[in-house]
Specification:
Layout: E1 2-6, H1 11-22, E2 26-30, H2 40-50, E3 54-57, H3 71-92, E4 95-101, H4 124-139, E5 143-148, E6 151-152, H5 164-174, E7 178-181, E8 185-186, E9 189-190, H6 191-203, E10 209-212, E11 219-220, H7 221-231, E12 238-241, H8 261-265, H9 274-287
Parallel strand pairs: 1-2, 1-3, 3-4, 4-5, 5-10, 6-9, 7-12
Antiparallel strand pairs: 8-11
Helix pairs in contact: 1-6, 2-3, 3-4, 5-7
Bound molecules: NADP nicotinamide-adenine-dinucleotide phosphate.
NADP nicotinamide-adenine-dinucleotide phosphate binds next to helix 1 and strand 4.
């Protein structure tokens, strides 16, 4: 398989590149400084000269709160660039594997969201990602859109954006008390497990389309924080608070749990249990030295 990976400097990008290397897949992995996906001409030129069979798009504008002010930028990266990328994939006959989010949903459903549920994003970030889903699926005939949630990969330790486990671990190390929302729920998704299954999607040639591929368990952010602290043997005080005590500029769904039944029925293994993912995450971050800034 000959592949290009955009967004190689992010959490998922790093895990995808690592997984490709383990499977001896030849991948041209590019971070933002090497190729900005909003440069449609450069993207097209690269695809036409490199002729990949697969293009992974792990690049995204992920600043959920800032997107309320920077909607134009979010649209350029999460929607317009995805449209151009999908069109380029179509013209060179490549498969596009793109990632989306649980934040496309309003979070008022009582059971986990399935792929046929209508997106109703609460935030501008969510709107930009829905548009990306639409463009990926309508501009390229060989596409996979994988909706994920609460991604944590060991690159969060040194990337610009960090991640939730790193926030908790930092506060633990400082001995600072934490207050975490216990009435907002998510399926934390471990980057390594997500990367492995992303490659399985291609290798097992499941039908193209939109799939949910998020962590196996739905937990509150408070529960997630407690499990991370327990894995780190951290005794920091963690207090549950309600979402009304933690308001953010961008509204977020209360419960955006994603059902993975469709992708599992198509032949992809269920995601591992959350505690196992946290253990693996802790082991990875011990093994991998942080990059110099
Ligand atoms: N993180 C989450 O909790 C979460 C939840 C649901 C869905 N997702 C989705 O999962 C996918 C992977 O997310 P992640 O956690 O790996 O995100 P991440 O760690 O923020 O990585 C995103 C990467 O995209 C890069 N990027 C941004 N704009 C770019 C551009 N114009 N051209 C090229 N690269 C660009 C970023 O570079 P800079 O660092 O230079 O900005 C960053 O390296 C995304 O589609 C995201 O929307 C993530």
């Amino acid at each position: 398989m000959r592949a290009i990976l955009f967004g190689a400097g992010g959490q998922l990008g790093v895990d995808l590149a690592r997984e490709c290397a383990e499977r001896k897949i030849s991948v041209l992995a590019l971070d933002r400084s090497q190729l900005d996906i909003t440069n449609a001409a450069a993207v097209r030129q690269l695809l036409e000269s490199y002729r990949p069979e697969v293009v992974f798009n792990a690049a995204a504008y992920n600043k959920v709160d800032l997107a309320e002010q920077e909607f134009e930028t979010a649209l350029q990266i999460n929607a317009a660039a995805v449209r151009d990328l999908a069109e380029s994939c179509e013209s060179v006959g490549a498969t596009l594997l793109h990632y989306s989010t649980d934040l496309v949903f309003a979070g008022d459903k009582k059971t986990p969201y399935v792929e046929s549920d209508t997106p109703k994003p609460l935030s501008f970030y969510g709107v930009s990602k829905v548009l990306g889903d639409v463009y990926a699926s309508t501009s390229c005939s060989s596409y996979y859109v994988l909706r994920v949630s609460g991604v944590f990969g060991s690159a969060g330790r040194y990337s610009n954006h960090g991640n939730f486990p790193e926030f908790v671990l930092r506060r633990c190390a400082e001995g600072s008390p934490l207050q975490i929302v216990d009435d907002r729920f998510t399926n934390p998704t471990f980057g390594t497990a997500l990367a492995k299954r992303s490659l399985d999607v291609l290798e097992r040639q499941i039908p193209v389309g939109l799939y949910h591929l998020a962590g196996r368990e739905t937990v509150s952010w408070y529960d997630f924080a407690c499990r991370i602290a327990a894995a780190a043997d951290c005794r920091a005080e963690i207090t549950p608070i309600s979402r009304s005590q933690y308001e953010t500029p961008a509204p977020r769904p209360v419960n955006s749990a994603l059902s993975c039944a469709k992708i599992e029925a198509a032949g992809i293994d269920p995601m591992p249990h959350l505690d196992d993912c946290i253990q693996q995450y802790m082991a990875q971050r011990k093994r991998e030295r942080p990059r110099s800034p």
